[in-house]
Write a structure and sequence with these properties.
The protein is of the alpha/beta class and 462 residues long. Helix content is 39%, strand content 13%. The strands form 3 sheets. The chain has an 8-stranded parallel beta barrel, surrounded by 7 helices. Strands 5-6 form a two-stranded antiparallel sheet. A two-stranded antiparallel ribbon has the order 7-8.
């Protein structure tokens, strides 16, 4: 039996995850719309033998009411992810692509078609990050009067995913004969409508593209709220999450794996990938100096903009930066898991307002580790070997500089410890992640029907 290996994803955010990364000399300042930048980053991640690259996305701008803070944002212009990944697929050979798409603001037929196309273009390297969209600024782009409540969004998401999977199964795997001699191109008996009629969607099908090479693109989910955990336990094959302590990460890992049995799934069918934002130095002193330099680039108005969303309706610009927040809002249990994580940590650590926005500026509440390659590998190994993670979503603070450093310095250290691959195991993302290719539901049903008919016929003869 082969030794369990870390899974690594590169979470790409334009110039980098630090809020002031675009001001850093190690960043590509126009990266949001610079395809050459993304090609370089994807090739670097592939050189580092990463499983996948990932971009988060929302179908709208995150609006900031303070014009001063808004003018200093480096993330207002960026590519649509499926389009971007289609371009990068032809520039790479092994690495997978995780694209975010919303079950609240997209259509299941069109989404199924896009991701099936991406899986074919990449020869089996596509993944869908299933999100319900949390941004309150999006609904006006789609004719809604308000953002749907979380419970409704997640109920819709469950049905949405089922519809998309059904559409991906429209053609059975062996439907296409392409026999020039006989003139038969495909077998119509192996093309299926789903004829779905549910609470949110009425979709007949079939999809007008053959089954994706992976069967289904890998299903990814992000978030740690109660309905998010249920959605992940039911449907996800990888989950991105945010924790800052081993104990919290272990509790989440055990909880999410423990929910899977009721959906007929095994724990190994879902990979838990917490975010980690590594600030790397060849010495501890160098790493701390790099971190201090980044933090020094944060304009106070931008920092306050980072914390304003946790105090809706409050004018945080009047607060004393070097004192603790004057109060903490009461949290709605299960409604905003990131808010719970951030504010609980801030209260526990006694952060001042400045310390809180500096903490958020690094990776929006994800785990920031500052240190040498050995220190970072130590922390990753601890979580990996103690039921806290199956791998990590690596969040470079500055791009491309920080990803180059991780690939050149941390990956070799993980390989020396036997924790990470030295070559890709397969051609598809599923193969490299160790995930099974799902069977076509119509093929399974047909074979089951044939077996039952054969059994009935044998009983009649007997």
């Amino acid at each position: 039996m082969s030794q369990r290996k870390l899974r690594l994803g590169a979470f790409i955010m334009a110039t980098g995850h630090h809020v002031a990364a675009w001001r850093h000399p190690g960043s590509q300042i126009d990266s949001g719309v610079n395809i050459d930048h993304y090609i370089e980053v994807a090739k670097t991640a592939e050189r580092g033998l990463f499983d996948q690259v990932f971009v988060a996305d929302s179908p709208g701008i995150r609006w900031i009411n303070d014009p001063e803070a808004f003018s200093r944002q480096g993330r207002v212009s960026h590519f649509e992810p499926v389009t971007l990944w289609a371009a990068l697929a032809v520039a790479t050979k092994h690495i997978g692509f995780v694209a975010t798409a919303s079950t609240t603001y997209e259509d299941p037929f069109l989404l199924a078609r896009k991701f099936a196309s991406l899986d074919h273009i990449s020869k089996g390297r596509a993944a869908w990050n299933v999100v319900t969209t949390s941004a309150e600024t999006v609904f006006g782009n789609f004719g809604y009067d308000k953002h749907p409540e979380p419970e409704l969004r997640y109920e819709r998401a469950h049905e949405f995913v089922d519809v998309v999977k059904g559409l991906w199964d429209s053609f059975e795997d062996d439907a296409f004969k392409r026999d020039a001699a006989s003139g038969v191109y495909f077998d119509p008996a192996k093309l299926h409508k789903i004829n779905h009629d549910g609470k949110f969607f009425k979709v007949s099908g079939p999809l007008n593209i053959e089954r994706p090479p992976q069967g289904y693109p890998v299903i990814v989910q992000a978030g740690s709220s109660e309905p998010g955990r249920e959605l992940a336990a039911a449907t996800a094959e990888a989950i991105f999450t945010a924790w800052t302590s081993l104990a919290e990460a272990q509790a989440f890992y055990r909880d999410i794996k423990g929910r899977m049995a009721k959906y007929g799934r095994r724990p190994e069918e879902l990979l838990v990938l917490p975010g980690i934002s590594p600030v790397i130095g060849r010495t501890e002193e160098e790493a701390q100096a790099k971190w201090a330099k980044l933090q020094g680039l944060i304009h106070p108005s931008v920092g306050l903009g980072e914390i304003a969303k946790f105090w809706p309706g409050e004018d945080v610009t009047t607060w004393n930066l070097d004192a603790p927040p004057p109060y903490y809002p009461e949290l709605e249990k299960g409604r905003n898991s990131r808010q719970n994580v951030v504010l609980t940590l801030a209260k526990r650590e006694g952060f001042t307002v400045r310390q809180l926005y500096e903490y958020l500026a690094g990776a929006r509440g994800h785990w920031v580790v500052v240190g040498t390659p050995q220190t970072i590998a130590d922390r990753m190994q601890e979580w990996f070997e103690n039921e806290a993670a199956d791998g990590f979503n690596v969040m470079p603070p500055v791009l491309p500089e920080s990803l180059d450093e991780f690939v050149d310095l941390v990956v070799p250290e993980l390989q020396r410890r036997g924790l990470f691959r030295t070559e890709y195991e397969g051609r598809t993302l599923r193969e490299n992640l160790g995930l099974a290719r799902p069977a076509n539901q119509f093929t399974v049903a047909r074979r089951l029907g044939a077996a039952q008919a054969a059994t009935k016929s044998a009983d009649t003869v007997a």
